Structure formats: C-alpha cells, structure tokens
Amino acid sequence: MKAKRLLEATPKTFALVFESGEAVMEPLEGFAREQRISAGSLQGIGAFSRARVGFFDPESRRYRAMRVDEQTEVLSMIGDIALGEEGDPEIHAHIVLGRRDATTVGGHLLEATVRPTLEVVLTEAPQHLRRRSDPDSGLALIDLDQG
Questions:
Q1: What is the DSSP annotation of 26-89?
Q2: What pTM was computed for the model?
Q3: Beta-bridge partner residues of 40
Q4: Low-confidence ranges of the chain (pLDDT < 70)
Q5: Long-range contact list for 9-15, CB < 8 A, 24+ apart?
Q6: Strand residue runs (E) in 84-146
Q7: Which domains occur in the chain, in start order?
Q8: What does the pLDDT read at residue 11?
Q9: In the chain, % of residues over pLDDT 90
Q10: Per-residue pLDDT tens over the stretch 10-29
Q11: Exposed, middle or buried by CB within 10 Å (0-12, 13-18, 19+), for 139?
Q12: Strands 13-19 and 130-133, sheet pairing
C-alpha cells in the first residue's frame, strides 16, 4: 500500500493506494495506528479478487460471514475509525461489490484481496472517538460520551 498526505493542515487527509494482491483491513488499521488517527472516516473504490463480507445477526449476536470468491468492482466502500476498548484504532467499513452480471453483494467488510487496485481517501476527525461494548447487541459501538 502506498500513502500520500493530501493536506498538511488539520484534519489530516490521506490518499491510500493498494496494489494487486494486497490485503485491505490489517494494513488500513496499521496505517491508522502509525499515523495516530483516533477518529476519522474513509471512502474507497477499486476492485477485489476475493472478499469476505458479514451480516450482523442480532439473534446470535455475531456476524454471519459470506465469501465472495470472484472478481468484483468496489462500487462503494465507506467506514469510520474509532479507538477500540484496548485503545487501538479500529476500522468499521461497509462495502457494496458489483459482480460481472451487474448484481451486487454487500455488507460489513471483514477481509479482502485487492485486484488490481483500491483507492481510499482517509480523513482524520478533529476529536477522538471511542467504542464500548454494548451489552444489548454485543457490538462495540461508538460512545459519544467517551473521548
């Protein structure tokens, strides 16, 4: 993954360009850690050779994963960054993938492999955001009272 800071002022804004064969989620979280981004948003477009997306099942309180083992276009990737309960930045991203037959599949982005590129614009928010465990859903949700 290559990165370039687009604005020198605050908030920081970066363009991240992933190359064919690269994973997405771990490098994104690693970049947020390296840049000390504790809150932000991201958006992206590109293509994947494979992905795993999730749908949150409130009954089981878990993500049900679905593999997408085909070449897809990243029609929309949006997400946020907030500090997890351990104090590290966590990415929460949703994705819509376009298939060859013009149908789509989407959900919570769990993992993906880029082919041939993924272009992401990441913008830091001016304040910290923190997630906390929500006992009702079992999810780590942004807590606006913490920060």
A1: HHHHHHHHHTT--EEEEEEEEEEEEEEEEEEETTTTEEEEEEE-S-EEEEEEEEEEEE-TTSSE
A2: 0.88
A3: 81, 124
A4: 7, 147
A5: 10/124, 10/126, 11/40, 11/123, 11/124, 11/125, 11/126, 12/37, 12/123, 12/124, 13/121, 13/122, 13/123, 13/124, 14/121, 14/122, 14/123, 15/119, 15/120, 15/121
A6: 89-98, 104-124, 130-133, 140-143
A7: 2-126 (3.30.1330.80)
A8: 81
A9: 84
A10: 788 999 999 999 999 999 99
A11: middle
A12: unpaired
pLDDT of residue 30: 97
User: What's residue 147's pLDDT?
Assistant: 56
CA distances from 32 to 7, 35, 124 (A): 16, 5, 9
Residue pointed to by tokens 């923190």: 130
Give the pLDDT confidence of 95-118 residue by residue, as tens digits: 999 999 999 999 999 999 999 999
Is residue 63 within 8 A of residue 55, CB to CB? The reply is yes
* CA–CA separation, 122 and 119 (whole Å): 10
Please confirm whether the linkage preceding 135 is cis (ω < 30° from 0).
no
Per the listing, tokens 């490098």 go with: 27
Please, which residues bridge with residue 143 across strands?
130
Residue 7 is predicted with a pLDDT of 67
